[in-house]
């Protein structure tokens, strides 16, 4: 085995040791396949487990730091991890990866909401994330100045730190905060960003488009369309209000599904029809007729939810 292959094998063992130590870990089949792929993997895993224990003991002796992290919305069921302990010595591995490298190693986790739910996530740096219904954001315990919006809508209230910019990924879009309150929504293939306070730099390594309060951008692939928005409408979903300026009914229906916790579908005949106006969710929750009047459609209610159709 070459030195490079040896390093790869060692780092793979370190990765498995850290993953298995996570209470939410549940990928036991893949872990077993990795162990059985090479007789040496069990010994390397043993060494990595011992190294992790040694590092945790070392970290425990360091001065305490204040940290606040969000736990996943739904923890996977606990299962007892298999043990392949043979007394391997951790010193070599610990010296190779270093205490700092271990502490800075990515430790991703996700926070998500069910349809009709909202959730607040406070990060250790003072930033706050507010998740709308049916949303999911990926975070990292080792770097809380980075987030990825995987679906739905998230309002960011970022504590600005020029030395450590807060970076957000949403699909193919990269964002960097400049001291900011901003909303990110992923609607199908389109990502929308709207700024309420401060500024956001969109695609900092490419277009470097700056958005100030009241400005927004829509991104589909590498195409960016700049626009305006009322500052009061940014993140208005928190208060049960959805504001639109020409959004297709397909997007409106998707938003209503996430916010109401009720499936709202739209037939192709009206899916692309634009809507301009504001929807008050409290009024619509049990009244499909009111929604039909506002959207100028017929709302067919059924056991599976509501369907938006053309008026007869």
Report on this structure:
This protein is of the alpha+beta class. It is built from nine helices and 18 strands. Strands 1, 2, 3, 4, 5, 6, 7, 8, 9, 10, 11, 12 and 13 form a 13-stranded mixed sheet that branches.
In short:
It is built from nine helices and 18 strands.
Pick out its properties.
three-stranded mixed sheet, 312 residues
Radius of gyration: 24 Å
Report helical residue fraction.
25-40%
* Helix-strand string: HHHHHEEEEEEEEEEEEEEHEHEHHEE
User: How far apart are the first and last residues' alpha carbons, in Å?
Assistant: 73 Å
Overall, the morphology is globular
Share of β-strand residues: 25-35%
Could you state the oligomeric state of the chains shown? Answer: single chain
Mean pLDDT: 81
Number of strands: 18
Q: Structural class of the helices, strands and pairings?
A: alpha+beta
Identify low-pLDDT runs: 64-94
Instruction: Give me the number of helical elements.
Output: 9
The major β-sheet equals:
13 strands, mixed
């Amino acid at each position: 085995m070459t030195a490079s292959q040896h390093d790869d094998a060692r780092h793979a063992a370190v990765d498995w040791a850290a993953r298995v130590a996570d209470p939410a870990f549940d990928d036991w089949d893949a872990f077993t396949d990795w162990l059985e792929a090479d007789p040496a993997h069990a010994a390397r895993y043993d060494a990595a487990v011992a190294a992790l224990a040694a590092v945790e003991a070392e970290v425990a002796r360091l001065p305490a730091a204040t940290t606040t992290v969000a736990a996943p919305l739904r923890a996977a069921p606990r299962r007892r991890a298999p043990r392949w302990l043979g007394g391997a010595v951790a010193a070599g591995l610990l010296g190779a990866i270093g205490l700092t490298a271990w502490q800075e190693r990515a430790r991703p986790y996700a926070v998500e909401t069910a349809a009709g739910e909202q959730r607040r996530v406070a990060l250790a740096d003072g930033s706050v994330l507010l998740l709308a219904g049916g949303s999911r954001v990926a975070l990292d315990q080792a770097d809380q100045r980075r987030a990825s919006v995987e679906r739905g809508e998230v309002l960011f209230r970022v504590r600005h730190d020029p030395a450590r910019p807060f970076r957000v990924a949403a699909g193919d879009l990269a964002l960097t905060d400049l001291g900011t309150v901003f909303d990110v929504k992923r609607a199908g293939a389109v990502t929308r960003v709207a700024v309420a306070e401060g500024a956001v730099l969109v695609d900092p390594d490419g277009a470097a488009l700056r958005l100030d309060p009241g400005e927004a951008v829509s991104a589909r692939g590498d195409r960016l369309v700049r626009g305006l928005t009322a500052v009061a409408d940014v993140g208005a979903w928190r208060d049960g209000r959805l504001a639109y300026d020409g959004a297709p009914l397909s997007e409106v229906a998707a938003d209503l599904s996430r916010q109401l916790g009720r499936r709202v579908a739209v037939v192709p005949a009206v899916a692309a029809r634009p809507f301009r106006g504001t929807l008050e969710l409290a009024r619509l929750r049990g009244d499909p007729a009111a929604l039909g009047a506002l959207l100028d459609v017929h709302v067919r209610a059924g056991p599976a939810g509501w369907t938006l159709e053309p008026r007869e």
